[in-house]
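Notes to self after the Tuesday call (sharing in case useful).
The group wants a holo model before anyone commits to mutagenesis around the pocket. I volunteered. Ligand is iron/sulfur cluster. Logging inputs and output together so the record is complete.
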Amino acid sequence: MTAPPVKRRPAVPLVDPARCTGCGWCVAACPDHLLELHTQAGRKSSVLPPAQRERCTGCVQCIPVCHFGAIRMKRLDGGAAA
Ligand code: SF4
Ligand code: SF4
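Result:
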């Protein structure tokens, strides 16, 4: 019997806090509710917490809803951003 295929997560979102306005659209768009709004130095920004990284499917649904170009996908194999 062969093992089931491993679900691949080629990339996860990386938020640029300098561009993020904390609007929360990406948080609402994630079907698995993995993104969170964090406040640092009085500014809100979206974060994929390390504990949630493993659960991210790389579906990219959080990307097009960001109107500020604050999210890019970071490949997990260390390659260039997708
Ligand atoms: S890539 Fe998909 S699963 Fe991962 S944080 Fe974005 S919307 Fe959620
Ligand atoms: S949609 Fe963009 S600007 Fe809004 S919280 Fe997410 S990353 Fe930040």
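Two things stood out.
Helices lie at 25-29, 50-53.
The chain has a mean pLDDT of 89.
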